[in-house]
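Dear colleagues,

As part of the handover before I leave the project, I'm documenting each prediction I ran so the next person doesn't have to rerun anything. This entry is a single chain, and its sequence is reproduced below.
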Amino acid sequence: MQLTDEQRQNDEALLQLGRRLHADGYRFTCVTPLTHQRYSERADATPARSLREVFGWNREFDASLLSPDELDHMREAGIIRNYDNRLRSQVRWSSLDRLLLVHSGFPTDTADAVFFGPDSYRFARVVEAHLRDSAAPVEHAVEIGCGTGIGALLIARARRHAQVSALDINPLALRYAAINVALAELSNISVEYSDVLEGVAGSFDLIVANPPYMLDARQRTYRHGGGELGEALSVRMVRESLERLSLGGSLLLYTGVAMVDGCDPFLTALKDTLDGPRWAWFYEEVDPDVFSEQLLEPGYERVERIAAVALTVTRRA
């Protein structure tokens, strides 16, 4: 992806800010949008008192709270907005283990918002468990719809000899993922534009994905899964990924499923494919009930619950 000179300068400043925060030991666990909203509504009207409140809870702050260097980096990155004589960051920083990740500010209303939250942590656990338990070699791996790049980062960190690709259709996600890769000081990740795997050649020993799975009236890239109940993109990723697995290679897909009358439409759509002789697969509910507020949205009238699920498919050698 080609960047303008201004975008390159902005991203370099954002990287420098991330390095400063990382050196200062900054940590923040990102929550669901509803929890973030409720916490923010409960917080008093006083300005932010810490870096966590500035870059995690995304509260307004007085310029005196930050060092001149931090403010300079924010201005150079173009991420400061003025609100009634106070300032507010347009990005957030969250942590996972020793990794620090930049993503979109709250609320994630824009069409190109880059999301990070509890689903990202659950997805990370799925990836880490596979890397810990599998002895299969990984020479070439890919994360589809990388967002912040957390899947690619975990693979590259655990398999330093592997070449890892972080793919996304969202240009802002690619920029943020590239910053997160540079901040992690990992040299075995390439960040590239792709619609699922279109235009990317070769086969892969490991494919990971955490696709959007909601019905979103605004069709925001990070949130809208398409289909009748948000399952379409997840189904497409599985079908297009299986043919790109090398012998003995695995697909790890973490997603959410809108359950209707006790049935799982995602698994139903894939069952005939997965039961073919080439595949060994395992499927589990990681969390039986997530994002319950979504059930109030149009299209979810018959949905009982949304479950977080993980599908692992391995191509038999």
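The mean pLDDT is 96. The chain has two domains: 5-104, 118-315.

All the best with the project,
I.
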